[in-house]
Design a protein that fits this description.
GO molecular function: lyase activity
Helix content: 25-40%
Oligomer: single chain
Strand content: 5-15%
Pfam families: Beta_elim_lyase
Organism: Halorientalis brevis
Region (Disordered): 224-245
Family: Belongs to the beta-eliminating lyase family.
Bound molecules: pyridoxal-5'-phosphate
Shape: globular
Number of domains: 2
Radius of gyration: 22 Å
Length: 464
């Protein structure tokens, strides 16, 4: 049993109801426009919002700010090698910088990129390089056995159908996102990773793992995955195959990431840092090309848009992220929130994924049509009711798609306590009790790029 103690106290305040009401109206009913000082529990994202450890802060003081040959870079490189098994590392300012460096090198006009589910910035980088982003998620109904599934998996079958249509030459890159962020943070099995590796070999594509939450993913593998006989464990008659339950998180991560040719990483997720990222790859030629592109967009290859102290903090954070007690606490908090919501019969996505609980706002507000953004209505009510900031990931954030009306409650790492989690659950419950009184929203002012509207558009409640 291990837990965290607070070494530095920060204050969070719940403003009075009238002030929340005024702040919400002033923000144009878009919580991205709120000042964080007016937010009591901020579950907008788990990206860069976590709390660093004393060891990370200590490492920051020793950050080496040399332009070239920084000792802090050496420490990051050693951590990536030990934890993830890649020797060649190109540091970047954050995950999308790594995507720019890697996909800008691998993807050309007309190429198709297959992914279990593209995260938004990944999709944008594929498109920015003239490529076509194709999602190949598994049908989660296939793995209905609750709590034990890998709903984040990549469907090799779908991918193969797509390759039959466009030809293998059109697909230079296959990506596996672990955990699958855009699919409710669902995990991906090692077995599936192995199948994707074989598929990439078949079509002669580079196999990239988007490893932003590789440690959380390894936690699910350790908890759930049995080894199949094809792993070479045994060729005897099927008895109960031992799984990963006795393996260390680091060993699982090394095994899973060891199947890839390259990784992209956001240090703001399982690096437990506030900023930073990197790409890492095995092929020396690809490494050279990425370094050249990194110089153009990120900085010299021993700092890549990060201060030396940020490299140092990330190096320590990566090692902490694969400690089992850390992950037990991390995933445990997400499950704690899910459990409270489940007890209150709030419609949430099950099984619960790694970094967040997703509420199904369509089921929460059955009377609000998707054209009036039920997810955004819930987001506004959570702030109004309890100063809780969540994010809409439904028809407001993703126009012209038929995505479900999800609201994500993402937990920052090592930041909130039981009392905050209980407050969030009580807030959701209070809104649920008066759900019949809540109306939908309409957009009154939106930016030119529709795909980015949820960051800045202004809305108003629909008149009764
Ligand atoms: C956050 C994220 C990224 C991009 O990383 P940033 O640090 O936000 O630029 C890429 N892929 C996935 C799966 C992510 O969650």
């Amino acid at each position: 049993m291990r837990s965290y103690v607070t070494k530095m106290a920060g204050v969070t305040t719940l403003p009075p109801r009238e002030e929340r009401e005024a702040a919400l109206a002033e923000a144009g009913y878009n919580v991205f426009n709120l000042d964080s000082e007016n937010v009591f529990v901020d579950l907008l994202t788990d990206s860069g919002t976590g709390t660093m450890s004393d060891a990370q802060w200590a490492a920051m003081l020793e950050g080496d700010e040399a332009y070239a040959g920084s000792d802090s870079f050496d420490r990051l490189q050693a951590a990536v090698q030990d934890v993830m098994g890649f020797e060649q590392v190109v540091p970047t300012h954050q995950g999308r910088g790594a995507e720019n460096v890697l996909y800008g090198t691998l993807v050309s006009e007309g190429d198709h990129v297959l992914n279990n589910t593209h995260f938004d910035t990944t999709r944008a980088h594929v498109a920015a390089n003239g490529g076509v982003a194709v999602d190949c998620p598994v049908d989660s109904a296939e793995s209905a056995d609750e709590g034990n599934s890998f709903d984040g998996n990549f469907s090799v079958e779908r991918a193969r159908e797509h390759v039959d249509d466009v030809g293998a030459d059109a697909v230079p890159v296959v990506v596996l996102t672990i955990t699958n962020n855009s699919n409710a943070g669902q995990p991906v099995s090692v077995e599936n990773t192995r199948a994707v590796r074989e598929f990439a070999d078949e079509i002669d594509a580079t196999f990239v793992i988007d490893a932003c939450r590789f440690a959380e993913n390894a936690y699910f593998v350790r908890e759930r995955e049995g080894r199949s006989p094809s792993d070479g464990a045994s060729d005897e008659a099927p008895s109960r195959e031992p799984g990963y339950e006795d393996a260390s998180i680091q060993a699982i991560a090394r095994e899973q990431l060891g199947l890839a040719d390259a990784v992209v990483m956001s240090g703001k997720k399982d690096g437990i840092a506030n900023i930073g990222g990197f790409a890492a790859m095995r092929d020396p030629d690809l490494f050279e090309h990425c370094k050249q592109r990194a110089i153009l967009y990120e900085g010299f290859p021993t700092y890549g848009g990060m201060a030396g102290r940020d490299l140092a903090a990330l190096a320590v954070g990566l090692r902490e992220a694969v400690e089992l007690p850390y992950l037990e606490h991390r995933i445990g908090q997400v499950r704690e929130l899910a459990g409270l919501l489940r007890d209150a019969e709030i419609p949430i996505v099950e099984p619960v994924g790694g970094h967040a609980v997703y509420v199904d706002a369509g089921a929460f507000f059955p009377a609000i049509p998707s054209t009036e953004f039920p997810g955004q209505a819930l987001v506004c009510e959570l702030y109004r009711e309890g100063g809780v900031r969540a994010v809409e990931l439904g028809s407001f954030a993703f126009p012209d798609t038929d995505r479900p009306e999800y609201v994500r409650l993402a937990l920052p790492r090592r930041t909130y306590h039981r009392e905050h989690i209980e407050h969030v659950a009580e807030t959701v419950e209070a809104v649920f009790e008066r759900r019949d009184e809540v109306s939908g929203y309409e957009i009154v002012d939106e930016p030119p790029i529709e795909e980015l509207r949820h960051f800045s558009a202004r809305l108003e409640p629909v008149a009764e």
